[in-house]
Amino acid sequence: MANITTTTAAAFIPEIWAQKALEVLRSNVVLAKLVTKDTDVATFQVGDVLHIPYPGTFTAQDKSANTAVTLQTPSGGADLSVTLNKHKEVSFLIEDPARAQANQDLMDRYINSAVPAIAEAIENDLFALYAGLSGSVGTSGTDITAATIRSARKALGTTLSRALRIARTETLRAHREATRASYQANSDLVDGWIWHSALGERTCAACWAMHGTFHTLDERLDDHPNGRCAMVPATRSWAELGRKYGLDFGDVEETPPKITLGVDLFERLPVETQIKILGPAKYAAWEDGKFALGDVVGRKRSREWGTHRYEKSLVELLGAEKAKGYTRLALMGAAKNAGQYSADDLIRVAGLGLRELTHGELERVARHVANAGFSSTEMMRVRTSIRGQVWDGKKLEIGDTIPTDVGHYLKHVVVNQEWPDGTTLEDYKRSLEEVILDQDSDVFVSRYNDAWQIGFVRGSRDWRGSNGGDFIFVEYKVQYGYLVTGYQPEDVIIQLTKKRESFRWIRNKRFH
Ligand SMILES: [Zn+2]
């Protein structure tokens, strides 16, 4: 007669059986409870090899009066791999599965007598393994020497450094409080713990900032909900241990874990990754030196999670106004260029009042603007002011098109006589360039008809014509990438104020 297999009886094997069986199993095992079990592993089956962080086993020694104790190191520590090579079974047949299910007593009775057999087998196997354990320091029954203690500490240290490595790589493990409790239990060896973050693109800036920071054993790792951070034990130095036990470990090399601070590691990330982690607006503010990475770590208390860390918002970091500025910069697509802003970006940064431009940056902006000049390809239409002037052998009529530099030259030099007689187009353009590049010029940024412009103002000096003014006024429009005007206004103050929004001096020596 064929037995009822799990396949045929699938529908009749309820979960409660397994739970009931495990309950009985747990209460029957003795040795299995004492060996290291790692429950935080993925599903496994017979034949798999588990690598388990295993601290080792101690043995209780007999102590008689007037004899020294025997120091010991745990046996079987270090890299322990366990091959799943056992599969215990106790089988019994139930002729009528339905009836068995219905009768609780019957089920209990069968399980109660079947499971102890498994428990016994597990215990026997564990006892068999125990005989193969090895690893000790010193000789039982002989006096302890400093060398014995040293090698005992060293052996323990090896286990700890392994634990460090495991903690570094296995950052997803969540048993933080249990871990901390074990550190506390070993506080003679473990001094505190070091915050260890996943350090990926998905790791928030706050966790990046916390990485590598030292915490005492009474501090909880309180990262935000769903955080993936872990604790790494900070072990006491040999010197400290030596002092504690009255021994000289001066010749033992100190090997503290080398954990680079997250704030330093973040600096070394590629720009694209930094932007991914911070977002463009926050990235630009950070790159502009508005805050240090460590500043993003906030701490708050919630009823649900208790105290926990979080990443501060840009408003919390910079205040509403500057936060808005950086958000605008990001919307313009310029924030991601922080650290290598183009001249046009710098004009926007200055215009938004995000920060002062450095001397070098302002010089770069000036060179860019001087270099751009008037567009030599854009054309402008002839208007009344220059109608009738001759250019290129042709008398200009309203509606004709001429290059922009020519249009401005004809109007301000030839017709208005703001420049001295005999000033050529080249002279005119050179005079504007001179004002732009002159460190004595005053510089301002403003929005004119909703577009960012940068203006340069300086005394007209030798360039003043019979109808000229005290100042030469040159302006560049970011949106065009060219100069939009260059002339000598009758009243410069009116020019500085009319139709302008967000007016801001970048360099101001004269207009207070
Ligand atoms: Zn985080």
Percent strand: 15-25%
* Structural category: alpha+beta
Strand order, main sheet: write it out: 15-14-13-12-16
| Weakly predicted, low-confidence segments | 38-42, 165-173
Largest sheet: 5 strands, antiparallel
Instruction: Count structural domains.
Output: 4
Distance between the termini: 108 Å
In DSSP terms, counting alpha (H) and pi (I) runs of 4 or more, how many helices? 17
* Overall pLDDT: 80
Estimate the global geometry from the Cα principal axes. elongated
The Rg value, from CA coordinates, equals 40 Å
Task: Note the quaternary state here.
Answer: single chain
How many DSSP E strands? 16
Task: Set out the fold topology.
Blueprint: H1 15-28, E1 49-53, E2 79-83, H2 97-102, H3 104-130, H4 146-169, H5 176-185, E3 190-196, H6 205-210, E4 214-216, E5 230-235, H7 238-245, H8 262-267, H9 271-278, H10 280-287, E6 297-302, E7 306-311, H11 314-318, H12 320-331, H13 343-351, H14 359-372, E8 379-381, E9 390-391, E10 394-395, E11 401-403, H15 404-415, H16 425-437, E12 442-448, E13 451-459, E14 471-477, E15 482-487, H17 492-497, E16 500-507
Antiparallel strand pairs: 1-2, 3-4, 3-5, 6-7, 8-11, 9-10, 12-13, 12-16, 13-14, 14-15
Helix pairs in contact: 1-3, 9-10, 10-12, 13-14, 14-16
Bound molecules: zinc ion (ZN).
